Amino acid sequence: MCNDEATTNELKTESDSLSEEDLPSQSDEVVNQPPSTIPINPKIVLVWTIENAIALGILLIAVSAGGIALGAYTNAPKPVLLLVWLTVLSVFLSRVFWLPKRAYEHWSYKINDQTLELRYGVVWQKSVAIPLSRLQHVDLHRGPLERHYVLSTLEVHTAGTRNASHRIPGLDSDRAIELRDELVIAAKIEQA
Amino acid sequence: MSDADVPKRRLHWSTLWLPFLESMGASLVPFIVMSVVMSPEKALSIVGLFIAIPSGGFFALRYLTTQFRLTQEELVIHSGILFRKERRIPLERIQDLNIHQTLVRRWLGLASVKLTTAGAETEEAILDVLGLTDAEELRHEVTAFHSSNSAQDSERLEGGAPQQEILCQLGWRELAIGGLTSNLVAGLGAVLGAFLYLNYFQAWDTGKYDGYIEKAIERQTNKIESFLPMGSVVVQIIDFFFFSGSLGKALLFAIVGACGSIVSFVLRYHGFQLTRSQAVTSRIYGLLTVRRTSLPQNRIQAIKIDEGFLRRWFGLAAIRADTAGDRKEIDENNKRDLLVPVSSREQANEIVLKLQPNLNPGPREWNQVSERAIMRRSRIGCLIVLLGMLLTGLWAGWLALAWLPAPFIIYYWNLQWYRNTKYCLTNHYVLWRTGWLNRSTLFLPIKNIQNMTLTQSPIDRRMHLASLIIDTAGQSNTGGGPVIRHLPIDEAQELKKTITHKVVRTRFAW
Question: Which residues in chain B have their CB less than 8 angstroms from residue A115's CB?
Answer without folding.
Answer: 500, 504
